[in-house]
């Protein structure tokens, strides 16, 4: 674990130093990397440790975006609006998770992705509050684009650090042990006294908390939100893929997967402008097919000493 923390510290310092390069494109990409790392780390709490394939990421991101935007438009300072949106997303996830997490397997997956569609329809139809299909404007941050770009990079960077710190705490705590027991055999974990529902709800709520914060920051970053963008099905599919790419249930897996995914996505977008979504999908499928345990899983497999072959083992 110490090595994982050290590697992450170097990675985080490298992201923090990006503004020194003075390149706006690198600044934007670093912000995306920090954002996706935070989302992947948060998803890993429920999808990696507990093994529950949650597709509700976009629901909490969108809820945080709208909550933060509405609070800012009501006159609340930007950071206070982010905190308020975080609390709203966490409370919503706690209430939702207590019932939703009683479902298992594909039932839970379908139920979680349906939450995204329900919230999107609510945002589209509640025009008096959310602006409906026309979307909602968010106050533009003063100080110019360069200053704002740095502020949002460090805001996403801070969320990424908090998400990683939470993952370290979960990994070392009784909660993490209980979640791993649930992932291995939920019924057996329940029989030996693990509070299954409480642990799953705690992980689900903690995961949603960071998603809500990212959504609120994103809304301030782009200064405009619309239902189709805030509650994006593509986003809710991307995040699990990032974790699977890097290695689920580990500390560094989500970080490696998110950073790799952003690099792959940008490469595909630049080379296949007309077929970028199809090309990106093919790349993702091939990577997951050839790296079923993620990048970390592959590295661990290669690091293990190989058993001697039968012919070599004969005297």
Which regions contain 5 or more consecutive residues with pLDDT less than 50?
301-315
Total E-strand runs: 2
In the CATH hierarchy, what is the class?
Mainly Alpha
Structural class: mainly alpha
What's the number of domains?
1
Mean residue pLDDT: 85
Please tally the helical runs, counting DSSP H or I stretches of 4 or more residues.
Answer: 16
The radius of gyration computed from the alpha-carbon positions, rounded to a whole number of angstroms, is: 20 Å
Describe this structure in words.
The protein is mostly helical. The protein has one domain (2-303): Orthogonal Bundle (ABC transporter involved in vitamin B12 uptake, BtuC). 77% of the residues lie in helices and 1% in strands. The protein is built from 16 helices and 2 strands. The chain has helices at residues 2-16, 24-49, 57-73, 78-100, 105-125, 127-130, 145-172, 174-184, 186-191, 196-222, 227-230, 233-246, 253-271, 276-290, 294-303, 310-313; strands at 136-137, 224-225. It has a two-stranded antiparallel sheet. Helix 2 crosses helix 12 (233-246). Mean pLDDT is 85; it is low at 301-315.
């Amino acid at each position: 674990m110490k090595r994982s923390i050290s590697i992450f510290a170097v990675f985080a310092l490298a992201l923090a130093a990006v503004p020194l390069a003075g390149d706006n494109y690198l600044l934007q990409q670093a912000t995306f990397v920090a954002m996706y790392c935070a989302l992947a780390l948060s998803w890993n709490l429920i999808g990696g440790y507990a093994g529950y394939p949650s597709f509700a990421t976009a629901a909490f991101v969108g809820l945080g975006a709208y909550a933060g935007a509405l609070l800012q438009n009501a006159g609340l300072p930007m950071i206070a609006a982010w905190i308020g949106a975080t609390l709203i997303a966490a409370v919503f996830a706690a209430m939702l998770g207590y019932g939703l997490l009683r479902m298992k397997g594909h039932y839970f997956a379908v139920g979680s992705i349906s939450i995204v569609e329900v919230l999107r329809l609510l945002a589209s139809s509640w025009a008096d509050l959310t602006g409906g299909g026309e979307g909602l404007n968010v106050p533009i941050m003063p100080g110019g684009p360069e200053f704002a770009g740095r502020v949002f990079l460090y805001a996403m960077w801070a969320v990424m650090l908090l998400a990683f710190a939470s993952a370290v705490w979960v990994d070392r705590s009784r909660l993490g042990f209980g979640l791993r027991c649930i992932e291995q055999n939920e019924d057996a974990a329940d029989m030996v006294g693990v509070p299954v529902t409480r642990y799953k709800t705690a992980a689900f709520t903690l995961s949603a908390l960071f998603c809500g914060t990212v959504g609120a920051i994103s809304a301030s970053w782009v200064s405009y939100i619309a239902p189709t963008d805030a509650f994006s099905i593509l986003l809710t599919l991307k995040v699990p893929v990032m974790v699977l790419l890097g290695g689920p249930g580990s500390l560094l897996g989500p970080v490696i997967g998110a950073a790799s995914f952003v690099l792959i996505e940008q490469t595909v977008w630049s080379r296949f402008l007309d077929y970028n979504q199809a090309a990106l999908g093919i790349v993702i499928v091939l990577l997951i097919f050839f790296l079923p345990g993620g990048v970390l899983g592959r590295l661990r497999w290669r690091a293990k000493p190989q058993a001697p072959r039968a012919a070599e083992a004969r005297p």
